[in-house]
Amino acid sequence: MKPIVSKDSIVYFNQECYSALNAYLEKVNHSKICILVDSNTHENCLPYFMSKIEKEYDIEIIEIEAGEIHKNIETCSGIWSALAELGFDRKGLMINLGGGVVTDLGGFIACTYKRGINYINVPTSLLAMVDASVGGKTGVDLGNLKNMVGVISESEMVLVDTEFLGTLPVEQMCSGFAEMLKHGLIQDREYWEKLSDLSKLELEDLDQMIYDSVIIKNNIVFEDPTEQNIRKYLNFGHTLGHAIESFYLTHPEKPTLLHGEAIAIGMIMEAYISSKLLSVTPNELQQISDVILATFPKVDINPVDYQQISQLLIHDKKNEKGNILFVLLTTIGDAKYNCKVPDELILQAFEYYSSL
């Protein structure tokens, strides 16, 4: 597959990843290399990745605990300290080998350690391949508030090797699929239609689907790298989805929701709002709901929690001047940003989802 070039980075695919990586490592004389892994990727992905590095380098491995709960400033502080103790200078390189937590957090650490060192993302989850590792967004959570601290700064390269997907449980694959569905909904009706009927897709189609998804995101990010306008489209489903995800993260008596599972709920609810405020038809709303629920079983959200979840919307990063702003659909394949939504319609969206 042909590499995808963004403003400051390049996305390579499968075996071309390692040709590009080895050429880069030989060309750029890094003083040290650190590979950031979590407890899962250390065991399941690191040996394979290390086998692809052709020459001997001074490489350190830093491991963090797996899971969104560890994507915080405390984890960053520990890694910053470890880098300092290991003698990392500004010519060091960080390679982030993992899912969205590792690529988000590792990118943020690299961008801030000594005011910035080079980093490479090697996403190992479907979510990270199609979304988290592409586009230069880095960051960590602030308490239960998602991605509140971070910077936008692209990696040297992104290496998408679908061999890593063989290590993932089914629910993690589904989590990434939510972002692929989102890309179709906001930008490409034909792509959405292909994803809508998984029964017609073969396993070998997955590489092309991932490639197409990265193309959609990259085209948007290339035109608007700092999210001043159309990059906001990529937040469809995330205003309510992040609020739901944050709420469930801080209530241990409730089931843990993966990012994609929460975004799936958010997309259904925001599609409902789109049908009330914009031009999404009842048939389109039904199709969106049916396709998403075919992959993501419905979550039982207690009506007494609607208000608490809604209150988390005030922290959404798209908000301006105290206004909660949504990305909504005008139709499948086209979106509109900076949409104001009445409070009562948000509660109706919860009721719509619960009624399905």
UniProtKB/TrEMBL annotation:
Residues 62-173 form the 3-dehydroquinate synthase N-terminal domain. InterPro entries: Dehydroquinate_synthase, DHQ_synth_AroB, DHQ_synth_fam, DHQS/DOIS_N, DHQS_C. Residues 176-319 form the 3-dehydroquinate synthase C-terminal domain. Keywords: Cobalt, Lyase, Metal-binding, NAD, Nucleotide-binding, Zinc. CDD domains: DHQS. The keyword Nucleotide-binding applies. GO terms for molecular function: 3-dehydroquinate synthase activity. Its cofactor is Co(2+); NAD(+). It holds the Pfam family DHQ_synthase. It is an enzyme of class 4 (lyase). Its EC number is 4.2.3.4. Catalyzes the conversion of 3-deoxy-D-arabino-heptulosonate 7-phosphate (DAHP) to dehydroquinate (DHQ). This is 3-dehydroquinate synthase.
